[in-house]
Amino acid sequence: MDMVAVLNELERQEEVDLAVKMFWVIQKQDWYQPDVYLYKDLIISLSKSKKMDEAMKLWESMKKENLYPDSQTYTEVIRGFLRFGSPGDAMNIYEDMKQSPDPPDELPFRILLKGLLPHPLLRNKVKQDFEEIFPDQSIYDPPEEIFGLR
């Protein structure tokens, strides 16, 4: 269990490359049990560091272990892809989120709606889904002239 403490400390110090290496070592230990929180913290750290390729490797590994991301994990990965300039990948994560056994929270939708402002077709799809899932919530639509759409 000291290895998990080291992993947590590496994440705290934002040494995400070393943290990922430590995670792969932990995974090979006899006592290792699949843990969504180990994955979650690492995926979020990688997403915040714009290391989306590494985050997606962990994402796939997590799914192979039959673990599912929570709303915070979806939010941070979506945010990471939007920061990385990859709205298509953010939409892939969004589609994955819609298939999740847990109902989605508002926050990932709101992050997408904001991040997709320059992409009106993608944004309208997310907006439609948001309005269906959260009919009592409202969405702010900025004036079109802000983005030169007029």
Please describe what this structure looks like.
65% of the residues lie in helices and 0% in strands. With 150 residues, the chain is mostly helical. Helix 5 packs parallel to helix 7 (106-115) and helix 6 runs antiparallel to helix 7. The mean pLDDT is 89.
Per-chain topology:
Blueprint: H1 2-12, H2 16-27, H3 36-48, H4 52-64, H5 71-83, H6 87-98, H7 106-115, H8 120-133
Helix pairs in contact: 1-2, 2-3, 3-4, 3-5, 5-6, 5-7, 6-7, 7-8
**Proportion of β residues?**
under 5%
Overall strand count: 0
Show unreliable segments: none
Structural class by helix and strand composition: mainly alpha
What key phrases describe this protein's structure?
single chain, 150 residues, mainly alpha, elongated
Question: Can I get a quick summary?
Answer:
By secondary structure, the protein is an all-alpha fold. Helix content is about 65%, strand content about 0%.
